Amino acid sequence: MSTETADLTKIDSAISGLSSSPPEEKKGHRRASSSAAGVYNINDLEKEGKELQIAKETQKLNWKLNTSPATLDDKETLKKFLTTPPVKKIDLHFPLGLEVTARNLKGVTIKDALDAIHKQFKKKADDELELPILAGFEWDKEESWTRLIVHQKKEGAPSSGGGKKKDKKKETYDE
Question: DSSP letter at 52?
């Protein structure tokens, strides 16, 4: 019997030795390839006090919220980062209270933001949208560091609309 107990203690020591080694190996294993270098977590930027710059190209898009971003002609603009420095995710807040989140582990691009907005508005008809055109984004660090305010407007091409109004005024003066 003494030989059996000796064997058991050897087995026990082997088991206890194995149970502590796998967790040590697992600690170092983490997937790093999914997030690109130089792309930040918005919360880390807030802690460090780093300010965001929004791509100015968003103001010139004249994009209708219920149409797919793929319909835009300027494909190069869609590939640009929405913010500098690039972030993994950012909330987009509409004045009426709606909030959507744009995410991309390699850095949120303008297309990612437009896709997130389009997902909310794609089922809406043109006449259901009071302000159907994207005017741009605003970052107000006083209100919230982690979100952008979405600005909208009624008409996409104000230059042509303005010309027609002037013509109407001229007609009234001629009479």
Answer: P
Do residues 46 and 145 touch, judged by C-beta distance below 8 A?
Answer: yes
Instruction: Please give the Cα distance from 69 to 83 (Å, whole number).
Output: 18
Could you read off the pLDDT of 127-136 as tens digits, one per residue? 888 999 999 9
For residue 78, how many other CB atoms are within 10 A of its CB?
19
Report the C-alpha gap between 65 and 122 in whole angstroms: 7
- Supply the Cα-derived Rg of the chain in whole angstroms: 28
Number of other residues whose CB lies within 10 A of the CB of residue 154: 12
Q: How many CA atoms lie within 13 A of 62 on its CB side?
A: 8
Helix (H) or strand (E) holding 110: helix 110-121
Distances (CA, A) of 37 to 33, 53, 138: 9, 19, 26
Q: How many CB atoms lie within 10 A of CB 35?
A: 15
pTM of the model: 0.68
**What integer pLDDT is reported at residue 98 of this predicted model?**
92
